[in-house]
Amino acid sequence: MGGALLDHWMSGGENFTIVDPMLEQAPDNVRLVKDRAAIADDRFDTIIVAIKPQMIDDVLPDYAANLGDDGYVLSIAAGASAARLKKAMGGAPVVRVMPNLPAAVGKGTSGVLAGPDVSEAQASHAMEMMQRTGTAIAVESEDMLDRATAVAGSGPGYVFEIARAYVAAAEELGFAPDQARALVLGTMEGTIAMALANPDTALEDLRNSVTSKGGTTAAGLDALNGDGGLSDTLSATLQSAYDRAVELR
Ligand SMILES: NC(=O)C1=CN([C@@H]2O[C@H](COP(=O)(O)OP(=O)(O)OC[C@H]3O[C@@H](n4cnc5c(N)ncnc54)[C@H](O)[C@@H]3O)[C@@H](O)[C@H]2O)C=CC1
Ligand SMILES: O=C(O)[C@@H]1CCC=N1
């Protein structure tokens, strides 16, 4: 995820250094080191946390001394609370963000939460960084960021899975894989574009505009969610992802 964001962050004026023991290559003009020892004497305005949440308590304390005066921590880690990050970073201010993977194509949707002691300048820098990767929405509490994680952070996983199942069903109906993929992704893209172009029209009304009485869409929708099963599945999906974010705090 860090790499996808970096490609868009680089349109700003900052200089970036990556510390990653595994990464073999970084974009042009980005310094890559394998170990913190290589930057032991360097100070940074922002330290970006893009490691797995489970590693934070082991890895982060080593970096507390690398944050310059007036510096802040920007974390993309799911769940990990500002309090936990702040403690690991020797009391530094923390902005938590929750991006999603379409940031890779400049179409990310992020939640942004400024933790305690974050200055206005730091909060607006973090917001501007996330806006370089797509849309960014400020949220008011850590709990809402964890809820945004369940909806949008993990969301591309659900959408890819729905698209995969939709394509598989089109193949079962007789289409070749490339035809099925083109029909499904084209339909999804066009439908989302139409919803975005009509922000004041309820999604229910847009759905009804496709649905002729006694027609094919009504028959399909009855099978899809006539018993509310799809709605229940989506509620359970978001609740499970949120519960996991809470466990990762
Ligand atoms: N994948 C996604 O769609 C999203 C991920 N996130 C968050 O992004 C973070 C990273 O997740 P992914 O990118 O999926 O994982 P990843 O496994 O692709 O990336 C983690 C990176 O950390 C590096 N790393 C491992 N140990 C390290 C160390 N000691 N010091 C420095 N770097 C180290 C790895 O080499 C790897 O490049 C997680 O906290 C996750 O919650 C947030 C939103 C979306
Ligand atoms: O699955 C995860 O935990 C990360 C956070 C949101 C998307 N991927």
Automatic annotation (TrEMBL):
Pathway: Amino-acid biosynthesis; L-proline biosynthesis; L-proline from L-glutamate 5-semialdehyde: step 1/1
Subcellular locations according to the entry: Cytoplasm
PROSITE patterns to which the protein is assigned, alphabetical: P5CR
GO CC term (a single one): cytoplasm
GO terms under biological process: L-proline biosynthetic process
Catalysed conversion reaction: L-proline + NAD(+) = (S)-1-pyrroline-5-carboxylate + NADH + 2 H(+); L-proline + NADP(+) = (S)-1-pyrroline-5-carboxylate + NADPH + 2 H(+)
Predominant location: cytoplasm
Cited InterPro entries: 6-PGluconate_DH-like_C_sf (IPR008927), NAD(P)-bd_dom_sf (IPR036291), P5CR-like_CS (IPR053790), P5CR_dimer (IPR029036), Pyrroline-COOH_reductase (IPR000304)
Domain spans labelled Pyrroline-5-carboxylate reductase dimerisation: 142-248
Binding site for NADP(+): A50, I51, K52, P53
Molecular-function annotations in GO: pyrroline-5-carboxylate reductase activity
Domain of life: Bacteria
Keywords, in A-Z order: Amino-acid biosynthesis, Cytoplasm, NADP, Oxidoreductase, Proline biosynthesis
Function: Catalyzes the reduction of 1-pyrroline-5-carboxylate (PCA) to L-proline.
Protein's name in the database: Pyrroline-5-carboxylate reductase
